[in-house]
Specification:
Blueprint (H helix, E strand, L loop, with lengths): L4 E6 L1 H19 L4 E7 L3 H8 L6 E9 L12 E4 L9 E9 L3 H12 L4 E9 L12 E5 L5 E2 L15 E4 L1 H4 L2
Parallel strand pairs: 2-3, 2-5, 5-6, 6-7
Antiparallel strand pairs: 1-9, 3-4, 8-9
Helix pairs in contact: 1-2
Length: about 180
């Protein structure tokens, strides 16, 4: 285990099994209809890579880089779009992938934007859900795991751009960010 991780919440195997279950649920939902998968950079990339290999409908993949977080752990509640989607979403079924929903601000803003561009449908799938700090009600269609109100890293999630490569989800030691 990484020396800055206090404890593991979900092992690599637990994550893998849950992603497979989610893929089956998503396949059932779409019944072969084509989707545009929109992965929110950077955190959801690991989840997206694992998930899309198990989807059975025609899939196109795109990315958006929008975040309400800087290098700290407190959300400013403001969305900054650093990289927009490149595909035309008008009339498309969008499967929006997020690593984690915390306050809900990021997802809320991205959904609003995609709806405004005329998406036919928007379905959300989030690997982790932290309900304790929710500020905006969000549409959560597929959830991997609910997690407690702690700062977590691994499986794509970072603290100051580190730890995304950890294959498990772990709680970061408070001493790392409380200096
Ligand atoms: P909101 O508050 O908009 O936040 O729902 C979603 C984004 O915040 C980041 N986030 C975290 N990142 N560990 C992280 O590494 C966490 O515990 C955590 N909580 C929120 C994340 O980038 C997500 O997309
Ligand atoms: Mg982050």
């Amino acid at each position: 285990m990484n020396k800055n991780v206090e404890r593991i919440l979900f092992t690599e195997e637990q994550l893998k099994n849950r992603v497979s279950e989610m893929a089956q649920e998503i396949n059932k939902h779409y019944k072969g209809e084509p989707v545009v998968v929109v992965s929110v950079l950077k955190g959801s990339v690991v989840f997206a890579v694992d998930l899309i290999k198990q989807l059975d409908m025609p899939v196109s993949l795109d990315f958006i880089c929008a975040s309400s977080y800087g290098s700290g752990t407190i959300s400013s509640g403001k969305l900054i779009i650093k990289k927009d989607v490149e595909l035309d979403v008008e009339g498309k079924n969008i499967l929006l992938l997020e690593d984690i929903i915390d306050t809900g601000e990021t997802l809320h803003e991205i959904m609003k934007m995609l709806k405004g561009r005329g998406a036919k449908s928007i379905v959300t799938a989030m690997m982790f859900n932290k309900p304790a700090r929710r500020k905006k009600a969000v549409q959560a269609d597929f959830i991997g795991f609910d997690i407690p109100d702690e700062f977590v890293v691994g499986y794509g999630l970072d603290y100051d751009e580190q730890y995304r490569n950890l294959p498990y989800l772990g709680v970061l030691k408070r001493s790392v960010y409380e200096k």
